[in-house]
Design goal:
single chain; about 325 residues; alpha/beta; Rossmann fold; seven-stranded mixed sheet; four-stranded parallel sheet; binds adenosine-5'-diphosphate; binds 6-O-phosphono-beta-D-fructofuranose; 6-phosphofructokinase activity; Phosphofructokinase_dom; ATP_PFK_prok-type; ATP-binding; transferase
Length: about 325
């Protein structure tokens, strides 16, 4: 066996399924006879030397838990060359040859820097945003969408009773996927996302027309990437005689038990990352495309934009009358 010791960390915003991914990395590494270390608090823990050796029991009873047992952080010091050098040195000092980084595109850039310093690195897409190319889904996205759909179901009950309209602001940073998938799955009347231009006047007129034709509620999903739900509601209210209630779902979307899809995705990717490190690969991001596991150069992943699923958007619009 070529590689004897690896480490794993979680970085950036947490997401449901990160624990399942940590578990898969640890258990696969142990299965293949390696030593495996957990690094606390992402790149900050790497710089500080905050490592602990993991065994089978260190990752027991976590597959179903949200958050990350390794904690996560955003670390400014690691953005500097000096920080990156210190981090690589901490790994070398312990004889750790490989590192699995679970996080978003910022964390991937960090992994790429370590790869350039001679540490074998693998990235796993841990973010609710689904904004990483070369993977159909990121770990946490499925759970976040389920949370939004569940919230909209509840909002619908009260909106229907009062014949009201609801604006729901969801996360996703610059990506509209949470809004798009949750909007389609919950029958939203409009989905406002950064990838598609929209006209609030046209939306307001449609809402008004629908209420006049007997519709008893309306749900507008707003991705945070287009702005604040409050602003959209105010604009609608200025145009028509409807005063939408606003719900900002916020960090609720990042918590709770991961869905089975996220657990399976995390388990497959964690194991795959370990096997890729064993094969001598480095500077790669792991993903699943049409069911197949793939490893793509991080350079390419961080310089590409995730393709937008216009077909899904058009479907949502056709059905949202
Ligand atoms: P995410 O991984 O969820 O996108 P961030 O963008 O906050 O979250 O990135 C997480 C961490 O990754 C940052 O705090 C920083 O330590 C590291 N990082 C981000 N971008 C870079 C970069 N260009 N070079 C080196 N490290 C980076
Ligand atoms: O990247 C995950 C995410 O939850 C985004 O959807 C959101 O824009 C951001 O992180 C929020 O960051 P913070 O947790 O620092 O408020």
């Amino acid at each position: 066996m070529e590689i004897q010791s690896i480490a794993v960390l979680t970085s950036g915003g947490d997401s449901q399924g990160m624990n399942a991914a940590v578990r898969a990395v640890v258990r696969s590494a142990l299965y293949y006879g390696m030593k495996v270390y957990g690094v606390q608090r992402g790149y900050q823990g790497l710089i500080n030397g905050d490592f602990r050796e993991m065994d089978l029991r260190s990752v027991g009873d976590i597959i179903q838990r949200g958050g990350t047992i390794l904690q996560t952080a955003r670390c400014k010091e690691f953005m500097t060359e000096e920080g990156q050098r210190l981090a690589a040195e901490q790994l070398r000092r312990r004889g750790i040859e490989g590192l699995v980084v679970i996080g978003g595109d910022g964390s991937y850039r960090g992994a790429q820097k370590l790869s350039e310093l001679g540490i074998r690195t693998m990235g796993l897409p841990g973010t609710i945003d689904n904004d990483i190319p070369f993977t159909d889904f990121t770990i946490g996205f499925d759970t976040a969408v389920s949370i939004v759909v569940d919230a909209i179901n509840k909002l619908r009950d009260t909106m229907t009773s009062h014949e009201r309209s609801s604006v729901v602001e969801v996360m996703g940073r610059h990506c509209g996927d949470i809004a798009l998938h949750a909007g389609l799955a919950s029958g939203a009347e409009a989905i406002l996302i950064p990838e598609v231009e929209f006209d609030v006047k046209e939306i307001a007129e449609r809402m008004s027309g629908n209420f006049n034709c007997g519709k008893r509620h309306s749900i507008i999903v707003v991705a945070e990437g287009v702005g604040k739900g409050e602003d959209v509601a105010r604009q609608i209210n200025e145009l028509i005689d409807i005063e939408p209630r606003v719900t900002v779902l916020g960090h609720i979307q990042r918590g709770g038990t991961p869905t089975h899809n996220d657990r399976i995705l995390a388990s497959r990717l964690g194991d795959f990352a370990v096997r890729k490190l064993m094969e001598g690969e480095s500077g790669k991001a792991c993903g699943v495309v049409q069911g197949e596991l793939i490893a793509t150069d991080i350079d390419l992943v961080v310089s590409s934009k995730k393709p937008f699923n216009m077909e899904l958007y058009e479907l949502a619009m056709r059905l949202s009358q």
